[in-house]
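anyone seen this seq b4? input:
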Amino acid sequence: MSASTTEAQARPRLRDKYDSELRAQLKESLGLGNIMEVPRLEKIVVNMGVGRATQQPSLLEGAVRDLTEITGQKPLVTRAKKSIAGFKLREGNAIGAKVTLRGDRMWEFLDRLVSLAIPRIRDFRGLPSNSFDGRGNYTFGVTEQLIFPEIDYDKVDTTRGMDITIVTTARTDAEGKALLDAFGFPFKREGQQQ
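predicted toks r here
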C-alpha cells in the first residue's frame, strides 16, 4: 500500500462528503462561477470561560481537563487583560480556556458535534439561525459539557458551559448558513417559537 491510499482512508467522513458531494451542490445552489468560491470551514474555536476561577483555581483545572477530553487537544489558558475591582479580578489572572481546531481534528469534532452531541441537548428545539456575525461565521453556546459522550458523568465536579465558533470562508451570512445547512446543522425553523 502506498502512502496516498492510507492517507485517503484516514480522512474524516464529513470532509470526504464535503469534497465529493456538498461542494458541487453548494456551487450550484449559491450560483457561484468557480469551485474555489464555495465556502469551506477554516477553523472551530471552543471557548470555556471560568469566571469563578479567581476564587477557586481548581475549577480552571477541571475546565482544561474537560476541554482536552472533548477536543483531543490541549487548551490554551486565557488570562484577564484588565483588572476589574467589582469582579475581584486582577490583570493576568487565569479566567478561561480555549482550543482552536483546524484540519482533520476540526472535521472530526464537527462530525461528533452534529451527529452525537447536539441531539443530546435537553429540550432541544434547534439552534438560533441569527447567530451569524455578518461574515458567515457562526457562534452558539452550550450550557453544559455533559452533552459530549467523552465526558464521564461521575468525574464531573460542576457543569460548565462553552461557546463554539465555526469560522468559515463565506463572505455573507447566507453563504455561511447554506454551508452549515449542508452539514446538517439543526437550525430552528422560521415559524418555530423560542
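The mean pLDDT is 82. The longest strand covers residues 41-49. kinda curious what u guys think
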